[in-house]
Amino acid sequence: MTAPDRKVAGYGAILLFGVVGPFLFPNYTFQLAVLWIMILFALTWDIMGGQMGYNSLGNIFFFGAGMYICAVVQIGLYYDVAEYTAHFGAVKIELTEDQYFTGLTLGLIAAAVGSTLFAVLFGWTVFGLRGPYFAIGTLGVAIAAGELVGTWDYLGGGGGITVPIYPGEPDERALLFYFLCFLFAIFTFVFLKWLYRGRFALAINAIRDDEEKAEGMGLHTLRYKTAAWAVAAFFLGLSGGLFGNMIGFIEPLEVAFPTVTFGIFMVVMALLGGKGTLWGPILGAVVFHLIKETTWTYMLGWQWVALGTLIIVNIVFFQQGILGWAQEKWPERFGLVVEEASEDGADDGARREAA
Amino acid sequence: MTALIEVSDVSKAFGGVIANQEISLDVPEGRITGLIGPNGSGKTTLFNSIVGFHPIDSGSILFEGQEISKLRVQQIARLGLLRTFQQTRIYSNMNCVDNMLISLSHRNESFGDMFATYPPEVADRAESLLEFVGLYSKRRLISGDLSFGQQKLLEFAMALMNEPKVLLLDEPTAGINPTLINGLIDRLKRANQELGVTLFVIEHNMPVIMGLAEHIYCLANGQLLAQGPPEEIQNDQRVIDAYLGGHIQTGDS
After folding, report:
1. ipTM of the predicted structure?
2. Residue A243 at interface with chain B, using a CB cutoff of 8 Å
């Protein structure tokens, strides 16, 4: 098989697994859906953390923001949100199929757009921070958002919101949300592959390597940084809106703004797989999710210890991640050049036409 | 002959240390101008002031007749006024070609250009400039793996990729193998003559700057000590004293 053939075969296998997975393993449909969300998390975190060198600990904010925006739109289209939340789930909204899907579609669009706007807005303030200050600043945004929503009665406060109920069979519902997760993760990957093909990738890599130099060369650094965060926020908002509907009930601390679980997982997955690469975060997400689910099943009670150990091993011995390690070991397989091109052995730096 | 950069009465202090005191100088268009002075005399501070790296305390800096002392680094760079660093700065995890591509001028970059790819002629120009500085065979290497001298050449090529009107070079020959210095001098001259880039050069290597610059300014203790053509500067007693250190002479007497 030639290289392009292998590529097509690889993509085909992943897509095929994505489509038949929930039919082969019907008991794991929810876990597979979460896997796609995890891949989306790792991919979006890596835009900033890996490619641009800005380690955000607060990206989960956009996930939660999208979740709440989506729920409010879904409810608000057919009911008074304040009255609905005041009854803490005692009011059930009966929606027809048309109404439900209209609400879900508009809700998801609003979630994506709203989160993107938040990213642009916060970008103006937090991009003044560098290094660890940026990490802590963004973490602060996410924690503050959770606390704020927890006291906001219109959004149900700490009691949360029950999202409108899917008007159909539970199995059908599980498959619908599975395929939406699958679709969004693929959408994220395709978009990032397109985004990373040219100027954008070089610009954010330059910011990672030396932002002061990039400024000195006239690069529109703020513009690129804001755009990078906005892209991450768009897909996180989308996934948040979807995840809220998948769970069926949203509340601020555990579901919408879980900084110590999902918020940290997205960082760990990208680091585990190899930050700053397109496939590293995907690989990291798959490995992490498998380990996490295995330890949850077979090492109950010790699962956090196992995850902690994984993180420590990763940070201390494997900083470059799985893919980064592979790139160092077999650079030529990844198209990297470590020896100078010496078609004719000369080293005066002059260009020679390849014979 | 018009002045591309006009510095008038620029002062800059860091706390109690006066790094630049009422310095006035002109960088004429199309020429190579030199800036010399002992360590700590305020040369790099003046460069930083011109490119907007820090605000100045007083005075004015005109670039093509436009006041730039209130502009930010990126805005000044996009006007076509660029600098290289004394401690060479490149994008060390990217290969040489990528370093060159991202250094393309951002002067007329629109919002949509962020998502564009590079047309083949840009890639071609990047490779030609790498060839110009003698790094063509290393173009696919990660730039951080290059030697210091090669990184310096890459930084120079990146600056040329940006097509600046004027380039401020902070000690271009420092740390470069003596046998390569002549090649670099030759390239600086060619950039000036063939590409029309005005150069303003800080340099400690006296034979180099005397052979390169047409007009030289000398700073000492944050003040402008002397100026003139190389042969005049070379024989100026104040300049000789400043470089050899006045305190040695007083110690002798």
Report:
1. 0.89
2. no
